[in-house]
Structures are given as C-alpha cells and as structure tokens.
Amino acid sequence: MTETNLEEMVLNKIREINIDKPADQGELLHDLPMDKEALLAALSSLYDNHRISMPKPPRTSKRVGMSNIYVGGFLRITAN
Hints:
By secondary structure, the protein is mainly alpha-helical.
C-alpha cells in the first residue's frame, strides 16, 4: 500500500470517528490494519500538511504499552 493510500485510510477513519467525538491515536491503532510506525508516519505527514489538527505533533511515546504512541495520554485528533 502506498504512503498516500495509508494517509487517506487514516484520514477517513479520523473523519468516521469524529462524527461522535475527536479520535485518538489508540483508537486508530486498534481499528486500522497497520503497525504503529506506519500510523505514526501517516499522522505525521497529515499533521505536517495541515490535514489534521492535534494538540501536539505526533511522536513516539517512551511509555510502556502496545498502543502508546501518543504523548501524555490521548491526543485529540480532528480532520481539517
């Protein structure tokens, strides 16, 4: 799958989740068929291109846990 396709998949999932509430990276990791490095790359690219809004830029967490790629708890993500 190309990088653009992964980004579109992530963006569509954010929009789907945003119908009810802001998405978080943990939800996306559990719902999308990609590893956390691919998700992080897609989120970083979408953030850099101003296609999503987040309180902090996406980056890897030092915390222990399978889905903890967020920093300081769940970051709220909205599609622009």
